[in-house]
């Protein structure tokens, strides 16, 4: 099975668990084993405790339960009334709904997801939230179904790591942004080299770990896509005990690989800007930025 199909199936399971009301057992975070296969509000340290009480109160509980991100881009991104926002890999819709409230009735928030079950859950969450300036689109983040120069801000929450073609994703993000538009995503990045066993473990791609780019690679790919004013801001550095929660279930000897993974994975907020004079990928060179 291809990576894309594995990701689609895992996130489809996530939505179905939330929709069915299964969710997570109340004591899930007392043991990692009960989280295996769970999709709602994972108890691993990457995906938990990302939204504060005020934000949680603005959205349906199901949207929070379906969140599998690694950060909170809506808390860090600058969103202005009247702007158009696109969330790549929108899942249950939490970041789309929060963004829609911030841009207000004159603005709009798009959510893009390739999983039918997640899209159905997101649309139901939209209905429950009573938010009208939202549209959920079916599609892949490598092929965004929106016109060139059509959005002000692209956000994403630990989804770009799941793509096998990150250059294509970043190129598409650049294409749909208006000149002067902003790229503002949460993702997992790596400092230094990562053990081959982790990179090869397909399950960890779905958990945002094995697919993580080195911070320097991320910067280089953004530059290649045409972006400027690139910033990578660490929001949390994961230690060995954090790693134990999500690596031990993958059959890896955490203690053996601890020296090689300690403090190398970090949640980060990544900012970049499409230069004002740019209208398409490749039209800007270093000399024109």
How would you describe this protein?
This protein has 289 residues and is α/β, with parallel strands linked by helices. The chain has twelve helices and eight strands. Strands 1, 2, 3, 4, 5, 6, 7 and 8 form an eight-stranded mixed beta sheet that branches. The longest helix is centred in the N-terminal third of the chain and has 18 residues.
Number of strands: 8
The overall average pLDDT, rounded, is 78
The CATH top-level class label: Alpha Beta
How would you name the CATH homologous superfamily?
Answer: Vaccinia Virus protein VP39
Estimated share of beta-strand residues? 15-25%
Helix content: 25-40%
SS field, number of helical segments: 12
Give the end-to-end Cα distance, rounded to a whole number of Å.
42 Å
Please tell me what the overall shape is.
globular
Order of helices and strands: HHHHEHEHEEHEHHEHEHHE
Q: What's the gyration radius in Å?
A: 18 Å
Query: Architecture, according to CATH?
Result: 3-Layer(aba) Sandwich
What's the oligomerization state? single chain
The count of domains is 1
